[in-house]
Amino acid sequence: MAALSLYIVNYYESTQIKERQDKIYSMAYMIKNLIISTDCLNSTATVTTAQSGGVATSSTGFDAVSIELEQLTGIYSGRIIIVDSNFTIIKDTYVIDEKKTCLTESVIKCFEGNEINKYDSELNNIEIALQVSGSNDAKGVIYFNFTTSDIQKKTRDINIALGEFILVVFVILIGVGIAYTFLFVKPFKQMEKEVNRIKTGKIEEELSVGGYTEIANVSNSFNHVLKRLRDIDNTRQEFVSNVSHELKTPITSIKVLADSLLNQEGIPAEMYQEFLGDIVEEIDRENQIITDLLNLVKLDKKSNDLNISSVNINEMVERVLKRLKPLAAKKNIELVLESFRPIMAEVDDVKMTMVVSNLVENAIKYNVMDGWVRVSLNADLKYFYIKIQDSGIGIPEEDQSKVFERFYRVDKARTRETGGTGLGLAITSGAVHIHNGEIKLYSVEGEGTTFTIRIPLAYAKNS
Description:
5-stranded antiparallel β-sheet; alpha+beta; Beta-Lactamase; Heat Shock Protein 90; 10 helices; single chain; 3 domains; 53% helix; Helix Hairpins
């Protein structure tokens, strides 16, 4: 507004000065023509002057010129002088310099043939000098000097008025700005209060902050984070509960078996042997759970413990299938390997072997008698793919999104019978992900299950 005001004031001043200069110049030409038409410069009569003791008469032509000069000077507060060819002032609207010699620069230049029409910004006046000639070529100069102080005064008044207006607007804007700031900050204050409440550990309550769209978006994002934290906390609690339960179950069984042996006398050797065999099985089961938990801990450390090397995937899968053939033979399950091309990839051999072993072993355990398990290998320029299909019992649709969770079992009773810990698929998923890979599941209950794995051929550690 200040810059605009400055521009407006300067534009107004220059426009007013230009307009006045044009008007004075136009009237100067009119007076020049009047002087020429009345032939004042060739008249022997003197101009009207105030003298002590009397007033001299003037010619009729000069009277008409004098009237025009007085009117023009009265309108624009200026001074007009008429100088003859001898540089003598024959008319001065201020009277004081009549009959004196005039040798000003503008008058001299005008006698030399240069028309003067200029504005002096330092002196704040307009100068116009026009050459006049009569019927006998008598030369003279009519010189106009008009002040523009009234324009400068109006400009200053406008400047002051605009300054006061800007000051009032500035004060109003400051007030509006302060009020708006309080309104703008209010939702943030509310959010700060809510966040401080959450800092105390009350993550079960959501952030409820209204206001601007941006605040609402931040609030929604924060609520998503809170939901994620609640899920993580629930998962942690569930995991701790599951671990406690899983570790306690074999110990409880061992204690029951041991107490049975201690509290009975004269137990046959065959029963001792049977109970001790059950105790050994429970110890093995406890050991398997602890081993799987240690594997999960290692996987949680991400890629720091990976031992990356160039591995022949075809040979690695063949070793796994060869080791699991006896297990498949118990249920007369056919193991089939389909390899479309040789595959060399940068992986951790131990962890990738564990991935394939877990999936194939599950495909065998949860299969039907006389079923089949097919393992196919393929690759492109960037990834290699492992697909494991079985003709087993399948996984219900509602359970498919949870099978990779720790200790999750689709059929707990059946899992106990097969000796599962509920950690195998969680370990498998973790091992795939730390190789920057993906694992997907497709299953139809009663028809079978398919796991597909995609792993980069060249390992790139995440930054």
